[in-house]
Hints:
Helices cover 77% and strands 0% of the residues.
Amino acid sequence: MRNETTLRPILMAGLGVTCLSFLDAAMKVISETYPLMQAVTMRYGAGAVFAVLVYVIVGGGRPSLAAVRRNATRAIIVLGTAACFFTAIARLPLVEAITLTFLAPLLMALLGRVILKESVAMRALIAILVGFAGVIVIARGQEAGQGHSFDLIGLLAALGCAFFYALSMVLMRQQTSRDSTLTIVLLTNCLAFLFVLPTGVWTWQPVPLTHWLITAAVGFFGTCGHLCLAWAYARSHAARLSVMEYVAFIWAMIFGYFIFAEIPTSWTLAGATLIMAACLFATFSQPGSKAA
Length: 292
C-alpha cells in the first residue's frame, strides 16, 4: 500500500466527503418517505448504474472472481452502514446524526491497528474516552431537549453506522493493494444492490418522478464520493485521512438549516466539539501519520 506525503490524498478525501454529504441530504428525503430497505435499494441501485457507466467509459477489464469474493464482504458491511445511517437520519436531525458518526475516525485508527497493523499512539485511547463523552453529551441533550424526544433507536443506529463505516474504510484501504479503485467502487455498489434487492422489492412503494431525480443525484454523488475516497485511501494511512470526515459537519449544518429547517442545539454543538477535538487529537498523534 502506498503512503504519499503530499496533500493530494487529504484533499481528495475531503472532496469525497463533500460528495457524500450531498448524498446524505438527498437520502434524508428518501429515508423519511419510504421503508428502510426500499431506501437502501434505491440508493445502491442508482449507485450501481453510475458505477457501471464510469467503469465502461474508462474501459475497466472484467473483474476476476477473486475480486468479487473480496468485495462481497465489504458490500455486506456497506449495507450495514447504509441501513444504520438511513435509520439515524430519518429519526434524528441531520447534524445530530452526522455528529454521532464522527466516532468513525477514532474507530478507523483502532481498526487500522487490528486489521492493517498500522501504528496507533496510546493517546488515541484517551481520545476515544473523550469522544464517547461527546456522545453522552449529545444523548443527554436529546433527553433534555424540548424540540424532540429521546430516540434510543436513532442514537444506536448512528453509532452502529460509525462502526460499520470505519470498518468499510479500513477494508477499502486493505483491498486497494489488490483491486483498482474503479473495481472496488463497481463491485461494492453492484453487490450491495444485488444483496438488498429482494427485501427492497418486498417492501416497495410507488416512487414519483421527483424522487427518482433525487435518487439519480444520490447515485451520481455516491459514485463520485466513493471514487475519491478509494483513490485517497489507496495512497495514505486511514488515520491520516480520517480528519477530513469533519467536512461533513459543516455541510450537515448548512443542509439541515436551509433544507430541513433544523437548528442544532447547544448540547449537539458541545458534543460535536468534544468528538472532533478527540478525533483531531488522536489523528495528529498517530506515529503512522508522521511516516505517511
